[in-house]
Amino acid sequence: MKKIILSIISLLILFTLASCGKYKESTEIKILAPMGTPAVSQMYVQKEKEAYNYKIDLVQGADSLSAAFTSKSYDFIYAPLNLGAKMYLNNKNYKLLATVVNCNYYLVIKKDGNFTLDDIKDKHIVLFGQGQMSSIVANYIFDKNNITGLNISYVGNVAESMSAFIADNSIVALISEPQLSKLEGAVQGLKTISLKEEYTKVTKENNLPQAALFIRSDLDSNIAKRYLSNLKSSVNKVNKNIEESAELGSTLYTSFTKDELIKAIPRSEIELNDAKAAKENIEKFFSIINEYNDKLIGGTIDDEFYFKA
Fold first, then answer.
1. Which of 15, 54, 77, 109 minimizes the number of CB atoms within 10 Å of its CB?
2. C-alpha angle 244/162/184, rounded to 5°?
3. Chain segment 258-293, per-residue pLDDT in tens
4. What are the backbone angles phi and psi of residue 21, rounded to the nearest 5°?
């Protein structure tokens, strides 16, 4: 009888730990995220990674992400929405678990007075991530506003775009948070245009999912639920406790200061929506982009794209 009672107690303890998000996985869970707002969104997960048995790797740009989707070397991957969709169409290795970041891309210029899209016509424009969400949204907005014949060049990631602007303030650069807040501290007299606001003007849609969380298709749904619960808690803390989060972020991501993150977090558009909640907005975006250029996604996404946790 004692053995039975002890077994029941053990199971209750295990269930309690799992339900509150403190359950430690028996095998290491591997997570890959690009530096920037996806990394910031999961900072409290990263803080407790040893308690959960999570291994978190951070990278710059999308090249490493593409390779990871193919190799299945990670359990969870944060990536631009369109990249995850294209990789799903290629191999079905990963499905969408949630959207994490809405559009926080900004065109940046150094000038006096107002900054409008007309001001970019005679400028050298540097966009990051050719073929990724950043450049797709920028070029979509340029085309829909009939701004043609632009002098555009591409760099691999937002850090390179920021470096190009610092080296030559005469250009227009595409920047995202939290790098924008860092750039504002380095260069005075910046003016910005929000691509989310311009996208809304063109499409009348107020939601533009930028970065998403993808899960390996064969991963156990209980692992998905636990990680999603941990991430939800992290996102809530990031948005609610900005100063505390900025302090933590500056220790985890030493390229950003506390003051930069205090400014960046409110503009970072960090918002967690699970696959079911995000589906309608994702489908609207895919419909708009496929009508604009059906090669950018490369096909039609089916219902299996959305992981059922």
1. 15
2. 55
3. 999 999 999 999 999 999 999 999 999 999 988 888
4. 85, 5
Closest by Cα among 179, 44, 54 to 108 = 179
Among 203, 233, 250, the domain boundary falls at 203
129 and 195 housed in the same domain: yes
Domain stop point among 203, 229, 260 = 203
pTM summary value: 0.89
- Cis amide prior to 178 (ω within 30 degrees): yes
Residues 112 and 196 in one domain: yes
Sign of the Cα torsion 33, 36, 37, 40 reads: positive
234 and 284 both lie in a single domain: yes
Strands 124-128 and 151-155: parallel
Residues 138 and 282 in one domain: no
Chain segment 192-230, per-residue pLDDT in tens: 999 999 999 999 998 899 999 999 999 999 999 999 999
In three-state secondary structure terms, 60 is: coil
What span, in angstroms and rounded, lies between the C-alpha atoms of 51 and 55?
11
Spatial contact of 100 and 54, defined as CB atoms under 8 Å apart? no
